[in-house]
Amino acid sequence: MAPPSKKLSAHLFAKAKQILPGGVNSPVRAFSSVGGRPPFIRRARGARIVDVDGRSYIDFVMSWGPLIHGHAPAGLIKILAETAARGTSFGAPTAQEVELGLLVQQLMPSLSRVRFVNSGTEATISALRLARAATKRNRVIKFAGCYHGHGDPFLVQAGSGATTLGVPTSPGVSPAVATDTLVARYNDLSSVERLFRAHRASIAALIVEPVAGNMGVVGPILGFLEGLRSLCDQYGALLIFDEVISGFRLSPGGAQKHFGVKPDLTCLGKIIGGGLPVGAYGGRRDLMEQVAPVGPVYQAGTLSGNPLAMAAGHWALSNLSPDLYTHLDKLGRRLASGLAEAARQANLNLQVNAFGSVLTPFFIARPVRNYSDATQADTNAYAKFFRGMLTRGIYLPPSQFEGWFLSAAHTTRHVDQAIDAAHSTMRAMRRQPRQ
Ligand code: HOZ
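Above: inputs. Below: predicted complex with (4S)-4,5-diaminopentanoic acid.
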């Protein structure tokens, strides 16, 4: 069979660049760090996406995490159609937002109150404002390589697209804002303690991705999250878990349930919207009741609690089951060990960091436990690997510093196809001279 032409994607990308900066609405999608042109997607179902040129790929991006049930599951599409037929937005209270709130609380009991917003970015900036108001302090500790959306206080040594593009601290973040952001090393409690000691009475909060997902996947070492909880208690700061990625993915109760560490505030996104734009923040009642209209901390949104998004989120969370996590864990382990074996046979350095259904293979010889390790990975090797996999019909994150995501729709067959593609891609990489 003749390979399909890539004309339409190429044409659309050229046209997109005439109107959208870089041709995209989120930087990592432009393929800048892996080379080539992004396929434009026409449709998706299950674990597969199909581009406008008719090429089908097994998808390991899954919209960067929200699609734990796969693309376009029939139950979700039905609920969305029924909900849309009743109206797409009211800017007024609905039953759906109450139902979703109660379900979130049932799954994550630390959220005794929850506020829905439209993205993870909104959730984190709102949670930080609340923490500052509640503690009457201004500073925040974050970790190098953790990404909490694109709010100014968090675009300091940030992971995800900021690292991919080589601008971990973005121009445009005012120095005054950056001064209030203190940066520690992930998995290094002594770096956190030093900051608390030096700035003791001025730190409002510490924010962390309990399993880092935006420097690639990097899990917490034993005692790290517990240590953060004690340090926050000792120094009177609030502990904020950014569970935008880990929430409902690591377990129905997120990383906080999995590791048994209770944050004061939690930020959510991705799965909570079932593939529609939703974020949320929530936590201790005494804190959340400082949010307007109960308290003075202002935050609002025209589309917050949007009925379509609430219905999608409710469907997604209602369909989480123990069997789903067993399936995801099994596939995650199979994919991780398959990739490691492919690299071993091709004699390439590879470390696969995997947590359930999210993983990142780093092209590096030694373990990756923090941002400095992650950024020493061979990004040229990742780029070659990415291009080889894409040619073989496997759609991966176009950056070394992102997670791969599995879903209910992935099967052993999909995973084995990806492993086969990895074997042949890595063999070919081995034959090519280093760039
Ligand atoms: N920041 C997102 C990944 N961690 C990328 C979102 C996107 O490009 O869609």
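The domain at 7-60+322-431 is CATH 3.90.1150.10 (Aspartate Aminotransferase, domain 1).
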